[in-house]
Amino acid sequence: MTPHAKKAKQFLADEARTDWHNQTLWIVRKKRDALAAAVPEWETLREKASIIKENVLANLDVYLEQFEAAALKNGVTVLWANDAAAFNQIILDIIQKHEAKNIVKSKSMLTEECGLNHFLHHKGIDVVDTDLGERIIQFRGEAPSHIVLPAIHLKKEEIGETFHEKLGTDKGASDPTYLTRAARKHLREKFLAADVALTGVNFAVAETGTVVVCTNEGNADMGVHAAPVQVHCMGIEKIVPRQEDLGVFTRLLARSATGQPVTTYTSHYGTPKPGGAMYIVIVDNGRSKHLGNPKYVNSLKCLRCGACMNTCPVFRRSGGHSYGYVIPGPIGSILAPQRTDARYTDLPFASSLCGSCSNVCPAKINIHEQLYYWRQDLSEKKQTSFIKRFSMKMTGFVLSSNSRYNFAGNMARKALKYLPHKLIYLPINAWGRGRELPAPPKQSFKQWYKNNRKNKPQ
Amino acid sequence: MSKADILQSISAHKAAFPAAPEIPSEELPAISPEQQLDLFKKSLTTAGAEIVELSEKEIDDYTAANLPGALDFTNPEIKEEYAVAALDKLNKIERALFAGRFGVAENGAVWLEDNNLPQRIIPFITQHLILKLDAKNLCANMQEAYKQIHLNGLGFGVFISGPSKTADIEQSLVYGAHGAKELTVIIAGK
To answer: Which residue, A20, A170, A337, B20, is most buried by CB atoms nearer than 10 A?
Structure first.
């Protein structure tokens, strides 16, 4: 079994939870549909977002320099990191330079990608994640299972148990309002004591040097404005050229992500607060390498909204943790193999290629096509299992010849009828796990057509 | 030198697209001021805010009676006092009132920026946020909204649409995550 299949099996062991997960994400998808349908120019917006991002990716070096110049003019310190190690070191240096003890962080998939919390922990620095969902999983020592809904894999009783242990809430209490209030109180203390606030970045405006962060909880703003030092961490692809482009992306982002017309807070950080310091860290970590690859460059248009996860029939029924990569689901499955890490070569196969991900993507990324390209590339490089390559080769051999196809069909109909069940459902037949083949038909469609239609008048 | 490395890598891998596409301009469907006001109110209600429509001269009486203790940051003296207040004092603010520059009909967002704010944290740290807005100052959507602001040189600006909220526990909606627990929008000019 592939790693994804193995972990999906663990998730599926709890049937009630799987059903809840599946249905809940489907509700989010339906909310997205309703809001998208309410905007008559929705498809134009998607098209525009895609074109703007294309323009960005084609001129990325120019825009990054323009962005840096504008940010410097705003009194911001701009730092650049080639890879995760350089990024983590930069953050550590900032923390040490300001002799900071208390670090708060609002949601940033980039810091997850770079393993920042883990790195700092080993240097004796503990970062407090302040998004409620992220704080919950941080308490539990887990990774987020969804980029927008990090604790969607958990039930409120489990969260109640965690909060009882970590925050002293009443034993057995699981009311979401009660638990949220407890977290509010706990995290207020953390905000007020914060020396450094870290955030991710949704959009970085090249012409003004501004970074934009969108939250519903207000945790980015509580941290950024309370702490004397604010640090915004962005991948190189977060650039938008002009202020007016934000109009397109802010209309798409929350509608696609959670089915809201906009997030509660859309915050624009330009200059440090009086007496404070502001840093922007620009991170490559393998992104620039893929700019030149026409098959995969579109993956860099991603806004990290999570719509592809909510709609994906595989994600909904296997859970985010089954993917094993920091960004799960369809978009993660085309980003992860770019890491050229053998751990992720099964992910492009964890899909039905139904195309729903591409249909909901606000930046019109052809996700399902890229999944298919990855399958081809990985097979060519022999980075798939021998059984898969062998069976694909045999399938190709059979399907490419009329006579071989007819013969094989004939044999299969006989074999399925007479061979013992156990032989057909050998462990090697991954498809047959949890599935039954239909009863074999008496004849092929070809034979049926010959007998019934071929020489008859229409 | 990471910056040089990154820019070099970008130009080395460039040109995956045939040509840098021009960003098209667009025509957006126009909606009337009445439609904008209706939509604005509907959007804010959905986002969990309370809406009050008053004439300019009713506002003071209304806030005194219904929002006792609200700190009015449109008052220069209060603004000045809180410009230098420590976090502990800010954390005790129960109600804070600001004048929003304009509102966005499609999502109920209200724009606030540095010159409205003695300290940037106040609209978030207050338990109850009150935003006053002139009914005339509405625009249809975010694309129109960004035509009304100037990010160039702006220190901080924010669109606020509703009280702070979360659904991170089993997707149950709870107001009052980290920012204000309540939002009241006073629409002036009835």
So the answer is: A337
Is residue B148 within 8 angstroms of chain A, CB to CB? no
DSSP for A193-210, please give it: T-SEEEE--SEEETTTTE
Residues in chain A within 8 Å Cβ distance of B9:
284, 288-289
Please calculate the CA angle A185-A189-A194 and round it to the nearest 5 degrees: 145
Region of B53 on the Ramachandran plot (φ > 0 left; ψ -120 to 50 alpha; else beta): beta
Beta bridge partners of A232: A199, A280
- Whether B142 is in a domain gets the answer yes
Cβ contact A225–B120 (<8 Å): yes
The vertex-A343 CA angle with A341 and A347, nearest 5°, equals: 100
A62-106 pLDDT, tens digit each:
999 999 999 999 999 999 999 999 999 999 999 999 999 999 999
Q: In chain A, what residues touch B103 (CB-CB under 8 Å)?
A: none
All residues of chain B having their beta carbon less than 8 Å from the beta carbon of residue A182 are none
Please answer whether residues A49 and A249 qualify as being in contact, where contact means their C-beta atoms are separated by less than 8 angstroms. Answer: yes
Which residues in chain B are contacts of A48 at CB distance < 8 A? 23-24, 26
- The whole domain housing B88 covers 31-188
Of A27, A39, A288, the CB nearest to B10: A288
d(CA A388, CA A390) in angstroms, rounded, equals: 5
B103/B81 Cα distance (integer angstroms): 27
For residue B61, how far is the Cα from the chain centroid? 24
- What is chain B's alpha carbon radius of gyration, rounded to the nearest angstrom? 20
The continuous run of DSSP H or E covering B130 comes out as strand B128-134
Locate tokens 């900071």: which residue? A100
> Which chain B positions have a beta carbon within 8 Å of A41's beta carbon?
26, 28-29
**A contact test, residue of B178, B182, B183, B185 with most A CBs within 10 A:** B178
Q: Domains of chain A, with CATH numbers?
A: 1-30+296-368 (no CATH), 39-285 (3.40.50.10420), 406-452 (no CATH)
Per-10-residue mean pLDDT, chain A, length 458 = 92 95 97 96 94 93 97 98 97 98 96 97 97 98 96 97 98 97 98 98 98 98 98 98 96 98 98 97 95 92 97 97 96 90 89 97 98 92 81 88 89 83 78 80 87 72
CATH code at B111?
A: 3.40.50.10420
A323 by Cβ neighbours in 10 Å (0-12 / 13-18 / 19+) ranks as buried
Structural domain count, chain B: 1
Please give the ipTM for the structure prediction: 0.96
Min CA distance, B70 vs chain A (Å)?
20
Number of CB atoms found within 10 A of residue B84's CB: 10
Q: Does the beta carbon of A35 lie under 8 angstroms from any beta carbon of chain B?
A: no
pLDDT of residue B17: 65
Contact A58 B109 (CB under 8 A): no
Residues 16-75 of B with CB under 8 A from A: 16-17, 19-24, 26, 28-29, 43, 46-47
**What is the distance between the alpha carbons of residues A444 and A173, in angstroms, rounded to a whole number?**
61
Residues of chain B found within 8 Å of residue A40, distances taken between Cβ atoms = 29
CA A378, A382, A383, A384 torsion: positive or negative? positive
* Continuous segment of H or E residues that includes residue A265: strand A265-269
Q: Is residue B129 part of a domain?
A: yes
